[in-house]
Amino acid sequence: MSILVLNAGSSSVKFGVFDFDTLEPTARGILDWAGAARRATITLKPPHGEPLRQAIDAPDYRTGVIHALNLLKPCPPRLGDQSVAERRFRVVGHRLIHGGEEIRRPVVIDAEMKKTIRRFIHLAPLHIPAGLEAIEAAEAALPGALQVGLFDTAFFADIPPAAYLYPVPYSWYEAWGIRRFGFHGTSHAYCTERAAEMLCRPPAPLRLVICHLGQGSSATAVRDGVAITNTMGFTPLEGFMMGTRSGTVDPGILLFVLREKGLSVAELDAILHHKSGLLGISGISSDFRQVEAAALAGHGRARLAIDIYAYRVRTMIGALAVTLGGLDALVFTGGIGENSVWLRNEVCKGLECLGVHLDARRNASLAPDDDVATKDSKARVLLIHTREDYMIAREARRLALEAETPGKHNSP
Ligand code: ADP
Question: Using a 6 Å cutoff on CB, does residue 287 contact ligand 1?
Fold first, then answer.
């Protein structure tokens, strides 16, 4: 028995297969539509051995997911066929970006729940339709499997109003639902549990700042295992500088360029999402590793880009740690957080006042999951390899087992 995990983005679906009993991953892959609307590339990575890559005709996610399932097992499923695949996959777990204010925990996805999710489309217009399409693809390919959704926003359900309200007219919140939500919740939830495990302490008394630094980046302040705030807001555009996203900027700038420089709303949207951040400053790339390499080779604007990046991460960690009244551990995760020795070193300079003392040698030599603080550092510095797909598989299994228990119901 297996669990299928689907993580649908605007032009790709990442998938993973986990053993139902052990939660060990048995295969991972990605369906990627970048470049051509009706053709996708499937890359399948077995835990051992060479990745398999295939170009396929796939006008939609449904065809793509069925192709992926064909590659995953010896007996291919056909649409609506009660086949081997259906018996093998007992549950499908979906990563969904937005659950609005209503969805506070993992849910079983049925027709009613899909209607609820559709109500949030305006909050994530690229990602929610993609997530719904992946749900429908899985329903078509595996009609007997339970569908379960985990929402990026759910970990932030208990953020207090003082942290989630913007100082704009209160009617914007009442009438339009404008408030801060927070994103990357599944990763932050995993790191919260993993940090407690690494520190051999229950999550309850811990004050954590978790920095998820990848192509998209955010940090969360966690106290007693509960998220207090996250640097992303109404959308994932707020907070840190990112690969191509600006992160937080003075809203006055936006008014200025609209009013005085003749930018259209569509142009401004494209610039803030796709032409800012590391790419916008360096002019070279949105990829941190490439920008860091160029900076080390003497490229001035690349240097500036990573300096701004580190500065902003450091200042926001400071704000979050103060919100918590101190820091027991600072966690780095995501592609940049887990891998860039330079970034961690740079960010931790100046955090000594919060009790953070990075051990330069350990920082340069250790890999996730490990503690790279000095022995006497009051706050620990943890590198954690985030495992969002494992969290989705684990929660999907939990709900699948609950669904078989009489008397359990599906409340968001
Ligand atoms: P996503 O948010 O798409 O899941 P990841 O968490 O994989 O992305 O992070 C991707 C980022 O991590 C890229 O900017 C990449 O350059 C960066 N990265 C990966 N490896 C390294 C490394 N060794 N040094 C610095 N940055 C790295």
Answer: yes
